[in-house]
Design a protein that fits this description.
homodimer; alpha+beta; 60s Ribosomal Protein L30, Chain: A; Phosphoribosyl-aminoimidazole Synthetase, Chain A, domain 2; 2 domains; seven-stranded mixed beta sheet; four-stranded mixed beta sheet; 25% strand; globular
Amino acid sequence: MLSEFDLIARYFTRSPREAGRIALGVGDDCALLSPSPGMQLAISSDMLVEGRHFFAHADARKLGHKCLAVNLSDLAAMGATPLAFTLALALPQARDEWLEPFSQGMLALADRYGCELIGGDTTKGPLNICITIFGEIAPGAALRRDRAQVGDDIWISGTLGDARLALAAYRKELELDPVALETASERMHRPTPRVELGIALRGIAHAAIDVSDGLSGDLGHILEQSGLGATLDVDALPVGAALAQQPQDLKRRFALNGGDDYELCFSAPSAKHSAVLAAARSAGIAVTRVGVIEAEQGLRLTDAGGAPLQLPLSSFDHFASP
Amino acid sequence: MLSEFDLIARYFTRSPREAGRIALGVGDDCALLSPSPGMQLAISSDMLVEGRHFFAHADARKLGHKCLAVNLSDLAAMGATPLAFTLALALPQARDEWLEPFSQGMLALADRYGCELIGGDTTKGPLNICITIFGEIAPGAALRRDRAQVGDDIWISGTLGDARLALAAYRKELELDPVALETASERMHRPTPRVELGIALRGIAHAAIDVSDGLSGDLGHILEQSGLGATLDVDALPVGAALAQQPQDLKRRFALNGGDDYELCFSAPSAKHSAVLAAARSAGIAVTRVGVIEAEQGLRLTDAGGAPLQLPLSSFDHFASP
């Protein structure tokens, strides 16, 4: 059995490579972080709970990846550059067989973005993973939810719905062939945070959010906080490779309401159309124009021909669901 | 039943009063914090789990206070000025009867130190409270664990052991009269972070830590990280008002090994003796000199007469205990 201090030393302590920004890492009462002069700090916390955000027997390496990915996705949605994170971990037992792949999955993703683990906490308890992440951005440059403007195009990065499709397969709501199941599961378990895109969209996009709870609800936050509405072409929504093989009704519903994709939904003035495409190219991810911001409040849906569509809208609420 | 968004809006959203430092609070993908020019950010995360750090039926108001207090105590042990915090909360249910006192207890303490709640997460799950706190301090001014020097006096703020005494009473290891139980319980449930003292000790103390797991283990961290040892006069340890009425053996053991007091243990050169006393006076808390830092590694204990004492040393380990 590992002690708490062994556990931290063995799996979560590394000498910081960013000595300039990380003045003091794991091992004191606090970590010390030196933001670049004049920069604001972007901060986000996410808590992932077993049975709620992941299955009890989830692959530990993928889980480590995903826990950090969803936090990096919050920085991406702000356009911030990742700096560092803290990890607080409640574990039923301290087992090497779990901690080794979990920490490797997490720290491999951290390394990809130069995002240092600078502190945290470990305790015994029902499995709970709480990450707080820090990025930096110049004052005024953040992609805020309340900054959409009438006439903005609405864009989506990558594809939507495959993570929801995997969940449907796990729940036995439908059956997938092995290739589709693998494709969809990978989207669910190893999401790619759109960090490079978020950074490339500074000065181009007006508003942004990451699609974690489902596009209809997440875009809804932009609309509410900007005091505006939108029309969305549901058939223009880019669907994942596995979902693309499903019937139209499922494609529409999962693309519109499915969560866990961690793509960016952002608004940008139509005059910036080619700048958006250039930013996406530089970030190595496709973007698709799916609608327009309007003065009239509420979310209106159309099909590819522009005819109004009625589809149930659902946004995920942790306390409303059974 | 409250929705997740209602819950956040009702209990945890307030307009920031520190508009200069908090550029964006609760409600976006990230909060935006503007540290003062040239300052380092001190960051700490603590996770509190039901059944581990508090009892299932803990008073919600006191629990809200304590969760933030233990984080403020980490800033205090660094000498940092509190700025802001995030709160991630897993709850079995979203109940007003719990959330209202919990948030009031937490935010009343936050207000006392001008420490703003700037974001977080709520989810359904076994009760788990994870706070990440941010303070600021000038580069080089932090009271680090690895900075003790040979010849430093070792000091303790306030008193030790009453929180451990309350735990013993709850566990029926002993009986307390009602007044002693009330005194001891208050120390356990409503610890006072020594924020003002930590700030006042900048430039005076060499090393500091807060006593959360027990003095012997916590001082041990200073000694290990500084590569030094110490002799501690066990009978000089300031014991709490309730513990003071107990037999000598219990006084010694609980003062030395009892956790949850959240006093500061710090080292300072003997030439700064009067500066330490002046800092404590300005912070409104007593401090007691209890030992000396030495080159020889390890922790040596003596009684009031200077004779060597053998007492069991225990440091709290979340994964070693049953």
